[in-house]
Specification:
It contains six helices and seven strands. With 188 residues, it is an alpha+beta fold. Among the domains are: 43 residues, SH3 type barrels, CATH 2.30.30; 72 residues, Arc Repressor Mutant, subunit A (Orthogonal Bundle), CATH 1.10.10. About 27% of the residues have low confidence.
Amino acid sequence: MDLKEIMSISGYSGLFKFVSQGRNGLIVESLIDKKRTNIPSTAKVSTMNDIAVFTDGEDVPLRVVLQTIKEKSNGSPSIDPKTLTEKEVREYFAEILPTYDRDRVYFSDIKKIILWYNLLQKNDMLDFEAKDEEETGEATEKSPVAEVDSKKTSTKPLPTKPVAKPVQHVSSKAAGSAGKINAPRKAQ
């Protein structure tokens, strides 16, 4: 599973899978109830690939944290953070990521990460490690010349001839009583 396709959307609970680009935003499918929704382009959307957890040193990508939870729970569902106390949930998360920054990683963030893991596990979407290894393997096999050539080529088709603006015809009634077409005024 590619974590670029899984996203968290501000104001919406749960996780969503990217379906396609809509006219006014994104079309996504909820991992909770499998319903498709149009998300406006003004919504704050974060892909799982872009999320990291603050630590005392380098930030740890969410993919690594989810993989650690999977290993600790042997691929089964993790704890339910809604039924445990804050202290118990923090202790559990400290076992997973001992160097997490206790000042910048809030309890709500920890709960959210564990709930996301449980949701991904329920939908059998935790096999993103194999795909990441394939991508890194392909990147090392590419030669620098192939990378330069791929950067030069554009995916956007070039127009064959210039596109003209449509001509507007204005009748004398629509233009006003004098029959003049409104033109932009000159700066004085």
